[in-house]
Amino acid sequence: xxxxxxxxxxxxxxxxxxxxxxxxxxxxxxxxxxxxxxxxxxxxxxxxxxxxxxxxxxxxxxxxxxxxxxxxxxxxxxxxxxxxxxxxxxxxxxxxxxxxxxxxxxxxxxxxxxxxxxxxxxxxxxxxxxxxxxxxxxxxxxxxxxxxxxxxxxxxxxxxxxxxxxxxxxxxxxxxxxxxxxxxxxxxxxxxxxxxxxxxxxxxxxxxxxxxxxxxxxxxxxxxxxxxxxxxxxxxxxxxxxxxxxxxxxxxxxxxxxxxxxxxxxxxxxxxxxxxxxxxxxxx
Length: 284
Known about the structure:
The chain has 284 residues and is mainly alpha-helical. 65% of the residues lie in helices and 8% in strands. The mean pLDDT is 95.
């Protein structure tokens, strides 16, 4: 058998070719630069402001009272970048296996003069099918981590929710309690994403997590279709082939959303009353 390490290296080389072929990117790429912007320094202004205003100290007080690990922005930002790389890897794997998945329109036999299509998955199908839910989970995780980062600048809300937050937690808090901040164009972008794009991710993710995996879903939809209809087979294939394109679009929303979130935080101006600990916010 060929050396295992050489096989792994060959696989990785092939995966990197896929990245280039399909223009797949993550926040680590190009020495952590995206569209001419330094990824690691994107939230620098906000970080300096949070320290100088006492906001970071107030966050530490909040996390200590909740018995949570103290929030380290460098580690939190690194986690966001790591998840973006995971999205790229999952998507690259889907593009790798997609061309070799079963072609339903070519899988048929004749029964009493009628063309009957059948589904006989291969290993390629199995690999593709198992990566689909994980890719959606990675997208969900990215937005969860990013909005947790945003919420760290609002420690009073973190206290109110007792450290248990979701994607919409920071958005809803800002709209209800800090409406002056909604004038930010960066916040408006995030709000628009939450309304028009995030549900497309989360609805599918919930289905995979709570109802059925993609493999079972595809098999079920095949059985529920007219298995003598070429049009139905082509429709199923098209739906499968559109998945990587959809995920790729969402990957770039992640890249854009990262900078929108950081730019929003850079706009924040906070002031803390030394006696009451009350925080007031405005936009610079």
